[in-house]
Amino acid sequence: MVQPAPATVEAAPSAAPSPTFESLRAELVSHSRAERWSEAAQALDRMKRAARDDQQRAIAARDLGDFMHGQGRLDEAAEAYAEAVSFARDALRTAPDAAPAIDLLAGSLSGVGDVAEAEGRLDEALTAFEESLALRRSTGGREAADPNAQAALSISLERLADVREDRGHRMRALALYRESFDVSARLAAADPARFGSDFAATRQRLAELEAKVGPID
Question: What are the residues whose beta carbons fall under 8 Å from the beta carbon of 108, sequence distance 6 or more?
Fold first, then answer.
């Protein structure tokens, strides 16, 4: 008697690995640069669900704030930035000397300040920008070896200076712009292709502010 051949059992296809937080963020950046806003929003939602610690939650919330700000949805941007600040503070408490955690909190606070300034809440903007600048200084500031850190310091100085000028504090604004000018000049001298245009903008803003202040005895 011929025995029937044993049935072949096919292995179930293995499930595709879940995308990592980092790969989802790269996807977000790609969609944003291509102005594929619907796909960017989907990537943001997946990022929030993939976040596994306070640092990643803060990054997702800050990126959501940037997205909403860019779309002109200021109330939603403010809420996202506030959430980012909360998560970033928690992350910093567990790693008080970690530069990435300090940078994340500083960036989140800058977002809070940007929205507050846009909505005319200048006192809140000042508070956020001042704390952000203090954090930028704490990581070495103008003496930092990393040009990205120096560029972030320059931007932070100018954000605070602009709000100071809006409040009528022109001398304080002038001092902040002069400090930013020094930082920007060094960056432009080292890498003119990357930082030359930023330095030119800083130089122009400084000249405008000096003209408003007038001669100083």
Answer: 58, 61, 62, 65, 81, 84, 85, 88
DSSP conformation class of 178: H
40 in helix, strand or coil? helix
Percent of the chain with pLDDT strictly greater than 70: 89
CATH of 140-217, one of 1.20.58, 3.40.220, 3.40.50, 3.30.870: 1.20.58
Domain limits of the chain? 24-136, 140-217
Question: Could you report the per-residue pLDDT of 112-157, keeping only the tens digit for each?
Answer: 999 999 999 999 999 999 999 999 998 766 667 789 989 999 999 9
What are the tokens at 202?
């800083």
- The CA distances from residue 132 to 16, 103, 142, 155, 156, in Å, are 41, 9, 15, 10, 7
pLDDT of residue 103: 92
What pLDDT shows up at residue 99?
Answer: 85
For residues 7-35, give the mean pLDDT.
Answer: 79
User: In the CATH hierarchy, which fold is given to the domain comprising 24-136?
Assistant: 1.25.40
Smallest CA-to-CA distance from 108 within 58, 50, 49, 53 is with 58
List the helix and strand counts (H, then E) for the chain.
9, 0
Which residue, 78, 135, 83, 136, is CA-closest to 112? 78
